[in-house]
């Protein structure tokens, strides 16, 4: 008999703490209540998406109101919440991320610990003949709750529950994985590997303010107005893929995770409870449409179809974050702004993700624009 899963979705148009708390509590209630997952005295690790040190209204990171609602619900059960992430550009300056994303203020008001797990204990785990180093701070927790953000992703098309767990790899190892596995197919396997090694108890998706287009950091803001949740991150991603307009098995992380039995990816086996979905006219990444071109045709027109990062010199402050994070050395230091060696560039979007000024954009060739 096929495995079944459940996804809950409720409409919530604004980041009002009381409204958000009510919706998230109702999501947990559909799974027997949050006390089904969090017991008295449990250390509960909350993993938001803190991709960039940007304010919440940019729609790049998990909104602090979502985090605060879960903090309060965990405490009501007698749990001890901590909040942590390892953004790509945070080495030595995680405080900037806490401040800009609103989490430092939240932590102070709620007396909640913010965990910086850079340079601390890691646990080596192996899967599929590959070794991964995951934060010991995370794995030492009794419960992990994944607070992901609904966004498109230029490289892997979509970022949600599975992709958010990538942030449990500390330090610069994340950019090294981009270098070692530059193709979307390879990198998707890596993301699923890491997801399989982390025992996440529950997933909450912040889909009130989303990002579509060429996300995950320089796409277009989209007011969607929903909060979703599930104890199955694969099922949650599968349903989100569907409502965003992706075809079955198009998002490889969802497809691979389903094939490995890490959750339910078949929509026919997912029960959806809650509100009906409206306003789901998402603009999908340009990379999606380029991928749809048959390989035989790409042999002839491939050189005319390209997408590449460019530096917007008027926005760039020459902070060199993109230079420091680039896994291949394609970003070159310049007097006023960096230059890009496109022979080395693997289109991993690392530069785009860490830029504090939104000075990296994806440029499409004329034909790529017509296709997308």
State the share of residues found in helices, binned by percent.
Answer: 25-40%
Mean pLDDT: 92
The CATH fourth-level homologous superfamily of the largest domain: LarA, N-terminal domain
- What is the radius of gyration computed over CA atoms, rounded to a whole number of angstroms? 20 Å
Low-confidence stretches: none
Q: What top-tier CATH class of the largest domain fits best?
A: Alpha Beta
Q: Could you say what the CATH topology of the largest domain is called?
A: Rossmann fold
Per DSSP, the total helix count is: 15
Overall tally of domains: 2
Give the biggest sheet. 9 strands, mixed
Order of helices and strands: EHEHEHHEEEHEEHHHEEHHEHHEHEEHEH
Count of strand segments: 15
- Shape by Cα distribution: globular
The CATH architecture of the largest domain: 3-Layer(aba) Sandwich
Strand content: 15-25%
* First-residue to last-residue Cα separation: 40 Å
Decide which structural class fits the backbone: alpha/beta
Characterise the protein shown here.
The chain is α/β, with parallel strands linked by helices and 372 residues long. It folds into 2 domains: 5-274, Rossmann fold, CATH 3.40.50.11440; 293-371, 2-Layer Sandwich (Alpha-Beta Plaits). The protein has 15 helices and 15 strands. It has helices spanning 17-29, 64-76, 94-100, 103-110, 136-139, 161-164, 173-180, 184-196, 233-244, 252-259, 286-291, 295-301, 321-325, 350-354, 366-371; strands at residues 5-11, 43-48, 80-84, 113-115, 122-127, 130-135, 143-153, 157-159, 202-212, 220-230, 270-274, 307-311, 331-332, 339-340, 360-364. Strands 1, 2, 3, 4, 7, 8, 9, 10 and 11 form a 9-stranded mixed beta sheet that branches. A hairpin with a 3-residue loop joins strand 7 and strand 8. Helix 1 (17-29) packs across helix 2 (64-76), helix 2 packs parallel to helix 4 and helix 9 packs antiparallel against helix 10 (252-259). The longest helix has 13 residues, at 17-29. The protein is globular, with a radius of gyration of 20 Å. 50% of the residues are buried.
């Amino acid at each position: 008999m096929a495995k079944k899963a459940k996804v809950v979705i409720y409409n919530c148009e604004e980041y009002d703490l009381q409204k958000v708390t009510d919706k998230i509590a109702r999501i947990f209630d559909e799974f027997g209540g949050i006390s089904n997952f969090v017991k008295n005295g449990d250390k509960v690790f909350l993993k938001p998406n803190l991709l960039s040190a940007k304010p919440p209204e940019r729609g790049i990171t998990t909104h602090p109101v979502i985090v605060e609602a879960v903090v309060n619900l965990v405490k009501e059960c007698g749990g001890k919440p901590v909040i942590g992430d390892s953004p790509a550009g945070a080495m030595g300056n995680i405080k900037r991320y806490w401040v800009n994303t609103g989490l430092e203020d939240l932590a102070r008001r709620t007396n909640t610990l913010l965990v910086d797990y850079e340079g601390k204990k890691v646990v080596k785990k192996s899967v599929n003949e590959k070794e991964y180093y995951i934060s010991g701070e995370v794995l030492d927790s009794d419960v992990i709750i994944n607070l992901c953000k609904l966004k498109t992703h230029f490289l892997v098309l979509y970022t949600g529950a599975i992709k958010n767990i990538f942030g449990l790899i500390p330090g610069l190892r994340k950019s090294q994985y981009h270098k070692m596995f530059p193709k979307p197919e390879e990198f998707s396997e890596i993301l699923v590997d890491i997801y399989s090694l982390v025992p996440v108890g529950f997933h909450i998706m912040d889909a009130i303010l989303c990002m579509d287009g060429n996300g995950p950091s320089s796409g277009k803001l989209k007011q969607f107005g929903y909060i979703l949740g599930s104890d199955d991150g694969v099922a949650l991603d599968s349903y989100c893929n569907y409502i965003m307009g992706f075809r079955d098995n198009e998002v490889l992380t969802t497809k691979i995770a389903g094939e490995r039995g890490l959750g339910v990816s078949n929509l026919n086996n997912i029960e959806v409870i809650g509100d009906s979905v409206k306003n789901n006219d998402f603009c999908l990444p340009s990379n999606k449409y380029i991928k749809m071109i048959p390989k035989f045709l790409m042999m002839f027109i491939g050189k005319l179809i390209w997408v590449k990062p460019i530096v917007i010199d008027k926005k760039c402050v020459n902070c060199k974050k993109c230079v420091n994070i680039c896994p291949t050395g394609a970003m070159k230091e310049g007097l006023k702004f960096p230059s890009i060696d496109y022979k080395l560039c693997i289109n991993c979007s690392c530069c785009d993700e860490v830029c504090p000024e939104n000075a990296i954009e994806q440029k499409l060739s004329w034909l790529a624009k017509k296709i997308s």
